Amino acid sequence: MQSSHTLNQDDALEQISQNVDFLTQQLHRGRRIGRFPRLLEHEYLRARNRRFLEIDRRIIAGGLLFYLAFCWSDILLGGASAQLLVSLRVGFAAVLFALLWWVPRSFLAPYMMVVAAVGVFAAGASVLFFITLIPAEMRFAYHLGMVPIQVFTMVALRLSMRAMLTVSLGLFALYVLLLLLQPLQTGQAEMDQILMVFVPLFVSFWLMLIGLGAYLAYAVESGARNDYVQNRLLTLEAVRLKVLTRQLHELSTTDSLTGIANRRYFEQQLDIEWRRAIRQQQPLALVMIDADRFKDYNDCYGHQQGDICLQSIAGVIAAHCQRPADLCARFGGEEFVLLLPGSSTADAARLAEKIRLDLAALQLPHERSEAGFCTLSAGVAAMIPAVGEHSDELLRRADRRLYQAKDKGRNCVVSA
C-alpha cells in the first residue's frame, strides 16, 4: 500500500502533466495575440502588469519629462497664449506624475495598462488642444508634435497591441476631426500651398507609423505571450523534476508495503548515528521487533490479510517515533527495528513495552497465537560506542535479546 504522501505526490505529478499538456497546446497555436483561456489569461495579465510596473513605469516617467521639455515651444510659438500653454502643460504633467505614483499603490494597480493607455491618449489630446490656442501661422509646428506622441504610444503600450491601436487610432481620429473643424492655414498664400501638400503627406505618414506600430506591437505581445507560456513550462518541468527526485528518493528509502523506512535506509542512518554517538559519547539504543507466529498468521488468514497486519504493526511503531532523530524501519519480512539516538536501555525498553501494549490493544484476531490476537516480541540493546567498535555489535545484541524474548514465550520485551 502506498503512503498518503506518495499518493499526494502522484496527484501532484498528474496535475503537473495536465498543466504541461495544456500549456503545450497553447504553444502549438503559434505566435498570436488572441486571449488565452480565462484562468491563464488572468495569470498572464497579472504577470504583464508586474512587468509594466517594474519597467514601463520608468518609460512613462521619461515620456512625461520629454512632454514637459516642450514648454520651450509653448514659450516661443505660443504668442499671447504662451503663459496659458505652459500652465496647462505643467499642470497636466503634474497630474499624470501624481497618477503615476498613486495608481500602483491603489486599487487601480491591476489596471495599470489601461490607466497608462488613458494617460497617453490624454497627453496626445492635450497637444491637439494646444494647437487650437496658438497663432495660426505657428500651428503647423504643433502638428509635427504628434509624431513623438505616436512614437511614445508605440513604445509605452508595446505589450498590448489592442491598447496601442486604440490610443493611436483615437488620436488619429481626433486629429482628422481637428483638421475638418480648423483647417491648417496660415493666411500666407505661399505657405498655405506648401501645407496643402504637407497635410496629406503627414496624414499618410502617420497612418504608416500606426501600421508599423501595430506590427511591432503584434510581434512584441505575441512574443511576450509565447515567452510567458515557455517560462511556465520550464517552471512546471522544474517542479516535476523536483517531485520525481523526491519520489525516487522515497522509493529508495521507503518500504512500499508499510510506508516506513526500508532496511537500506535504516542501515545508512544507523551508520550515521553510530558515528555521531562515538563523537558525542552519547548512548544509541536499538529495538528489534518481530511479529509473533506471523507465518502461522499468513497460513491461516492469507497473505493479503498478512500485509494488512504488517501495516497495522508498522503504524503502531511509527506512532511512537516522536523525536526528529527517531527512526522506525521494516528490517525484513515480519521484523521491524526502532533506532533511538540518545536513549538508554531503560528508556528504549519502556518505549518497546508501550508499543507491545498498543498492538495488543488493537486485538487483531490470530487464532494460532497463544493470546488469541496478534502480539509482538522485542529485544532492546543500547551502547555508548567506542572508536573501533562497529554498529553490527548493537544489532547482534538486540537480535540476541529478541531471541530471548521468543524463548520466554513471546509477547514480551527483553532488555537485559
From TrEMBL:
GO terms for cellular component: plasma membrane. GO terms for molecular function: diguanylate cyclase activity. Residues 282-416 form the GGDEF domain. The chain crosses the membrane at residues 59-80, 86-104, 111-134, 164-182, 194-218. SMART domains: GGDEF (SM00267). Keywords: Membrane, Transmembrane, Transmembrane helix. This is diguanylate cyclase. It comes from Venatoribacter cucullus.
